[in-house]
Amino acid sequence: TSGLPLTIDYRSGNEHVASTCLKFLMDPQKNWKHTLALAQTNEPSSEAQQRGNRVISFDTHPFLSYAVTWWAYHVSLAPPHSNLVSLVFEFFEKSCLVWINAIALLGDMRALTRAAQYIKLYIKKRNRKTSNDSLMSLTGSRDDELKQWAKDLIRVVGRFGNILTQSPQSIYKQIVPFCPRGSIISWTYGRMSGLSVVGISSEAWDDCLARLTMGNDQYASKVLCKGTYFVTLIRNGVLVVWHAESCGEARRIDHGEWISVMTCSRVSTWVVTAGTKTIRVWDITTGEEVFRLPKL
Question: In sequence order, what are the beta bridge partners of 264?
Fold first, then answer.
């Protein structure tokens, strides 16, 4: 009405944004697989040069980064029963690997685990809506399939996150064959890789979420969990800080001497390490030293 402020329905608005993001990522004219491949060179180059090539790719297509990172967030806020769910299935079945490739190029695999959580939230809303209705929609029977996609996304990050960060294109031919045959990502894309792996006995994901590598001949002598991070202590006095969401290495902190005790604050992101000569306090979110005290 003339004279009244413009209003947009919250859920319908999120549905529109989610639909726009998904259609943008699936647009065959964009040919995102080819565009992303151009950002990854096979020629040897420094890590800084490779990162620069990746940034240039997303700078050329500014909406790409947003669509890749936030489409699932808008899906979680959309009306639970709408045509959007069909678009989500189409996206998973046609463009899931390209999406994972793009996230790996961005260098933050946590975006994938967050998307999985948003999908789970969307499923809960759909189930709640269905329980209040007398009849279930035709797409309601595919909610279990959506759950499988969310589960596979989390497992792919835990098992292959570090590999994908180093080589984003490996998702197409090297990663999928190592997924369990009963996983939905293997069912959907297994025949496209051209690589066959013999000897994988498990038909489903096991209880192991991730495997971490500290380095050659290194092992964790202690593990601390702190909010969105966990910390492993290795024998040369180095703390390895990991992202809890993606199990990817965030940073390393060197105490400079053998560590006898490591503990964390209950109310902050500080970790205390006690060596042979000094006691040092670290902020694990930045890797910076906060305090240093000599041992008496």
Answer: 271
Closest CA to 119 of 67, 154, 160, 159: 154
Dist CA 86 CA 266 (whole Å): 44
Helices 84-106 and 47-60 cross at an angle (nearest 10°) of 150
Contact status, residue 119 vs residue 146, Cβ threshold 8 Å: yes
Question: 272-288, pLDDT tens digit by residue?
Answer: 999 989 999 999 999 99
Question: What tokens were used for 6?
Answer: 């413009």
Cβ atoms within 10 Å, residue 70: 17
Burial class (CB in 10 A: 0-12, 13-18, 19+), 185: buried
Q: Which residues contact 50 (CB under 8 A, 6 or more apart)?
A: 40, 41
Q: Which helix (H) or strand (E) holds 73?
A: helix 62-76
How far is it, in rounded angstroms, from Cα 227 to Cα 243?
Answer: 9
Burial class (CB in 10 A: 0-12, 13-18, 19+), 157: buried
Rounded distance between C-alpha atoms, residue 246 and residue 3, angstroms: 49
pLDDT tens across 129-159, in order? 665 554 444 445 688 999 999 999 999 998 8
